[in-house]
Specification:
The complex is a heterodimer of chains A (about 325) and B (about 260). With about 325 residues, chain A is an all-alpha fold. Chain A contains 14 helices and no strands. Chain A has one domain. Chain B is of the alpha/beta class. Chain B has 9 helices and 10 strands. The chains are: A mainly alpha (about 325), B alpha/beta (about 260). The interface between A and B is large, with 31 and 43 residues.
Chain lengths: ~325, ~260
């Protein structure tokens, strides 16, 4: 079956439990597992969540809408810097910072989307890299706003709802991040199943055909870029809030490229694919880099080659087809 | 004669120095069934591309419902009721059959701007795409992925998307080409059953289908319209015989 079977069947016919509810249950379970597996390293998990948001954001434009980009971290980073500056200026309420980061992301997404989606194919890809490099260069130059190569530090957010302070163990940060991720994920589930989401998938399949049914392709893609910007912006905000620092790495080309790798690893064009890809990649990286600090990049490379060879559509479609085969084998035996 | 829904006035299209369409003028009215025929390379598909807005004409103008739409974008022409299908089917391959048609229905109703709606599950939307699929006898395929369809079924789906957009003028580019004969008969039946008020302009090579379908025939050769008239006249017209029908009308005397 398709890679959308898990949660995104667009024509609900026999759905008993809403997909949103299932998603919340699955993600709470994953979050609990994370807490049990990495009790002393919640900072790793919160970082994982902010990157997962970047990958989800990338999925909206690349996986769902077919826009090739290698500059997505620009949106993530700009929001992180915006939140960092706001916090240093005295606005320390985490929810307010999150909203500000989402707004910065939306603006950045709309602006870069308006430019990038005008083009197609390789020119589009090159332009996305150019936007990313431009932002990275600015981040380096405008050291008054970004701290340059030293980065922005000393960001100390206030209490969540005025009650829960961010503690050194990262518990508040973890719960806060999980909650934000779940809310974003559920909203996105809804958006990708909306008429607008369906149209974006159609545009990805064949943009001329989409225009021939009367769709205004360009404004829709820019809008999707705006939505994607909000999600990347929230990811960047979480990174700034949880780590207290924003460095040049948050706008780097490597971050954009890594996000794309995670997306392809999990399965582009599916929110679950994006989530699974970012979890598997980062957990693998976490363990392997600790076990072998010198050759871990080689192993990550080997993992990617294996996935591209044996599961070119990503891990999620592979998992679904495997479970499907096992299930039908069991049925035929019974 | 009812008012023309689609009118071409002196339309030419050149690529570099080569004129692919040369001073083409004709009109199509409500309820018309017009076949556009001509040898390979006569410029038929280019003409359809110019009419639908995929290409800009080098000269001349195109009117839809009396409004000059020569410079209008593809979506604005679609809004005006000018709908086309493709010679080589173009479908949304990652969507199901139902989603392909539902998307067209929602686009027609102006719902595809909605970012946060579950309109696709709405009863009126479902009824509409089920009705269109039913008209073309492919309702049983609703949940299939496009990639699982036979080619003939894909062509019917292409037509279904067109119908869901409630066309006033429907441009069909060789709707039965490349389809096995048992499936092509279903396509032909579907074309027979198109709502009577729609104006249909069809490119077709199969002359049996042309004679069955058309009440008027346009013949394009080397980019020029060399004949328009009723199907009975077309086979006896000397220039048409020479340019195109030779192989069909008297297979023995081709040069």
């Amino acid at each position: 079956m398709t890679d959308r079977t898990l949660a995104e069947d667009a024509i609900p016919a026999r759905i008993a439990i809403p997909v949103e509810l299932r998603a919340v249950a699955i993600m709470l379970t994953l979050a609990a597992f994370g807490y049990v597996l990495f009790p002393d390293d919640l900072a790793f998990l919160t970082r994982l969540i902010s990157i997962a948001l970047l990958v989800l954001s990338l999925d909206l434009v690349t996986g769902y809408s077919g826009v090739a980009t290698l500059g997505h971290s620009a949106i993530f980073g700009v929001s992180a810097y915006a939140v960092g500056n706001l916090c240093l200026a005295g606005q320390s309420d985490p929810l307010l910072l999150l909203v500000a980061g989402a707004l910065a992301g939306a603006l950045m997404g709309l602006a870069s989307g308006a430019l990038i989606t005008r083009f197609k194919g390789l020119p589009q890809l090159v332009l996305s890299i150019a936007v990313g490099q431009l932002v990275a260069a600015l981040a380096n130059k405008l050291s008054g706003l970004t701290g340059g190569s030293d980065g922005l530090s000393g960001i100390s957010p206030g209490r969540v709802f005025g009650i829960y302070a961010f503690d050194i163990y990262g518990r508040t940060g973890y719960v806060f991040s999980v909650a934000v991720l779940i809310v974003v994920f559920v909203v996105l589930l809804r958006i990708v199943r909306s008429p607008f989401g369906l149209l974006c998938r159609a545009i990805k399949d064949d943009s001329l055909r989409a225009r021939m049914i009367g769709a205004r392709v360009y404004p829709r893609l820019v809008l999707m870029y705006g939505v994607s910007g909000v999600v990347a912006g929230i990811g960047g905000s979480l990174a700034a809030i949880n780590t207290g620092v924003v460095g040049l790495d948050s706008v780097s080309f490597e971050r954009s490229a890594e996000a794309l790798v995670m997306l392809v690893l999990g399965g582009a064009g599916s929110l679950w694919g994006a989530l699974i890809g970012s979890i598997v990649f980062q957990v693998f990286e976490h363990y392997v880099s600790a076990a072998n600090p010198f050759h871990w990049m080689t192993m990550v490379g080997a993992l990617l080659i294996a996935v591209v060879l044996f599961a070119p559509k990503g891990l999620l479609p592979l998992a679904i087809s495997l479970t499907g085969r096992v299930a039908s084998a069991l049925r035929s035996r019974a | 004669m009812t008012r023309p829904l689609l009118e071409l006035r002196h339309v030419s299209k050149a690529f570099g120095g080569m004129k692919v369409n040369d001073d083409v003028s004709f009109s199509v009215a409500e309820g018309d069934r017009v076949a556009l025929i001509g040898p390979n390379g006569a410029g038929k598909t280019t003409l359809i591309n110019v009419i639908s807005g995929d290409l800009q004409p080098s000269e001349g103008c195109i009117l839809v419902g009396g409004v000059d739409m020569t410079t209008h974008s593809i979506p604005r022409r679609v809004d005006a009721g000018l709908i086309r299908t493709f010679q080589i089917t173009r479908l949304f391959t990652s969507l199901t059959v139902a989603e392909n048609v539902a998307l067209a229905v929602m686009q027609k109703k102006g719902l595809t701007k909605r970012v946060f709606s579950s309109a696709i599950g709405r009863t009126d939307i479902r009824r509409e795409w089920q009705r269109v699929l039913g008209v073309l006898d492919i309702a049983h395929l609703a949940d299939r992925q496009v990639s699982q369809l036979a080619y003939g079924q894909q062509r019917l789906l292409d037509l279904a998307i067109g119908l869901a957009l409630e066309p006033k003028v429907l441009l069909l580019d060789e709707p039965a080409a490349g389809v096995p004969s048992d499936e092509s008969s279903r396509i032909i039946e579907a074309i027979d059953r198109l709502p009577a008020h729609i104006a249909v302009l069809m490119i077709e090579h199969d002359m049996d289908l042309v004679f069955r379908f058309a009440r008027r025939v346009l013949v394009l050769a080397n980019g020029r319209l060399i004949f328009q008239g009723n199907p009975a006249e077309v086979t006896s017209h000397q220039e048409v015989r020479r340019a195109y029908l030779g192989s069909y009308a008297d297979a023995c005397h081709t040069h």
